Structure prediction request, 258 residues.
Amino acid sequence: MPTLRDDYFDAYRSLKLTRDAEGVLVAQFHTDGGPLTFKAQDHTDFVDAFYRIAQDRANKIVILTGAGGDFIPAIDFASFGNVGDPGIWSQVHDEGVQIGRISLTYEYQ
Amino acid sequence: VIAAIEGRAHVHSEYALLANVVVAAEGATFHDAPHFAGGIVPGDGIFTTWSYRAGAGRAEAFLLNPQPITAAVAQQWGVVAEVVPNGRALSRAQELARQYLKVPEVTRRNSRVHLIHPLKERLVREVGYGLSLEGASAAALVKSLQAAS
Prediction:
């Protein structure tokens, strides 16, 4: 069977991806190895990550988890900039819609 | 897809609710800190996922509640499938993964597709409008903070 390149494994600052020989992918949310403080860059990155994970048939099972004893404990609002600016919110909107459409599953509606 | 939850699931817990099975440590807590508690509409799919899994009444109370709920409550609501001792969530998820690997790959993949499908349909219908409402509320929050400073 053809396989996709797994170069996305090292692409995300706040998502550590580890896959074992049987295809069980552990996707771990983290900040520097500890609990994740969710930032605007993560909102962008996770759309791409969830899409790539879903598309890669070598991922047989996906386990989502956190780091340092937490799942996702905190958010950095300031990292999003001025969320009252329609240009800023437009990106938040578009990314939020996409992550729901993907839902870590390859088929699209 | 399995979610293994230790500690605080207080931001974007809808990611966990996209899983087929949520395993939570007994000390885990669930909360929606960024939205209503922080001054904006819970419009990004957090209501869609929680109401899909827990029922609308529980989801609304959860989203408007300034306090977290425990893993035991989330299990009673049907959001959490299993509660395990602290530190055991990931290892229990790995055990479940081994069990799921025993069925043919197409069965496993297609079961995922079928089981997530109704939630995906709701997300597609609801999240665009929800995020538009949330965006307007974010602008209103910024405006009120600026007026106060």
In short: The mean pLDDT of chain A is 94.
